[in-house]
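Review form for a predicted model. The reviewer records the input and the model, then writes brief findings.
Reviewer: anonymous (R2)
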Amino acid sequence: MKKKAGAKILLFMLLLALAQKFLGFFREMLLAQQFGTSIETDAYIIGLTIPTVVFAAVLAAITTTYIPIYIKIKNQKGEVEATTFTNNLLLIVLLISLVAMIFCQIFAPFIVGIVGSGLSAEGNSIAVNLTRVSLLMLPLLTLIAMYKVYLEARSKYLMPAFINIPIIVIVIISLMFADKIGVLGVMIANIVGAIIQVLIMAVYARKEGYHVKFTKINLKDKNLKEMSLLVIPVLIGTSVQQVNIAVDRILGSRLGEGSIAALSFGQKINEVFFGLISSTISTFIFPKLSNLNSSNLENQFEELVRRSLNLVSLVVLPITMIVIFYNEFIVRILFERGAFNEESTVLTSSALLFYSIGMLFLGFRDVLNRTFYSMGNTKTPMRNAAIATVSNIILSIVLMNIIGFVGIPLASSISSIITSTLLLISLRATISKFNFSSFIIVQIKILLSSLVLIIVSKYCIGLLAPNESFEALFNAVGILIGFLVYGLSLFLLRVKEVRMLVGGILDKIKGRKEKKK
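Model under review:
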């Protein structure tokens, strides 16, 4: 029953993530339509870099180390003590974010000069103004992150999975009026959306028994000291993706107008596909892994890790194949309208193609990092992240000079492959009972089924012999048929994770029918 209940929760989380990603796609489509791959788009993306990319690494490190400690305090001393620790930590992080906001406001021109070093004088001026506005989100993002991780620690997953939707909707509305409010108005909409997120989370957390109390900060808390020892290694481990994004944008700014925008749009599509499943699964399993590790339930721990990796592959690998073979079609359908012209499509689809090579490995990385963190092992992800960051910088510079623009996303993919491979090797050495042969067999089955998907979709599209008027429809039909055959192939090959997901869906349908009766 617990497995079925877990499958239902995971399914709901995936549906909410899907809705969020769909809306996020629509937001990017409107951004592309209104501004294309222009200097304003480049400046807007740079403006969002500091609060949403750079500081996100700090918040990720703090919130990642929080859950195992919260669970330990709750199990040993009770909820009151755990809540007190949460409030103390929130006040400290909030103070740090306010100091960081003031610091970054003062040095905004210098920061933009680094992140957008290749921008023109006009682009730099716009980016500095937008950055100063976006920095107002830092304290809000801190509150959102702490509320989310508190609820996840209490196994309340649905509200944290939903909460990004309001800000996306607000930005979408602002983009509809972008011709009147301009790019500055769109940036302000991000702040309005963040305020709404904080209010919703505060109300929900209060129902769960927690609200912020502005008491005296206790820096001598033993649990805080324990957490501080873990934060720096985790900060390095969780910041690799943010650092890679920053590197891509710094180098991209030197490749001409629109390069940052093209890299960002390609990256957004890539993140949607791998992030939809990997971030949802890693969020869902983290508290469970921490509990299993604390209870020394090694067999259940190993099974949960292996099945989580298989679930990532189950969804991400076929999508990777689709992106590799249909990248230009995907970009054209999603973005080619308004200011986003054919040249923008070519640039973005090239970036997407090379980003997609590392898509599966990014998904593995998220799950594996959480696995090591749940065991209290922060050094292994830190070492691998450092290797990945250095390799990404070196490869980006080398490949950019050899093959140009696409060298940047290719370097990012190669560094992701290196990171995940090293993490898998470390996992096998750390978990002696990890059934690696079973994992490889499932991966082979999924790969074969994914290849069948491509063959069937290509055959169907060729059979339909589309003309330009119906190209989008026939491509979509061919890909849909391919996915149906992919699912059938997985059933025939007896991949257990498929049966688990389908079982959760069927149980939910049966439950609704019984309620109606």
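Findings: The mean pLDDT is 79.
Further findings: Residues 39 and 123 are 6 Å apart (CA to CA).
Recommendation: see findings above.
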